[in-house]
Amino acid sequence: MEVSIDLNWDPQWGGADAKEIRERKQAIRAVLPWVSLAHGNVRALNEFADSADLGRTLNLLMDWGVQGVVVHMGEQGAGYFHEHALTVSPPVATSLRVNTTGTGDVLSVCMMLLHHRNDIVIRDKLHLSNSIVSEFIEGKRQLIPPI
Question: How far is CA 115 from CA 1, 39, 48, 93, in A?
Answer without folding.
Answer: 12, 12, 23, 24
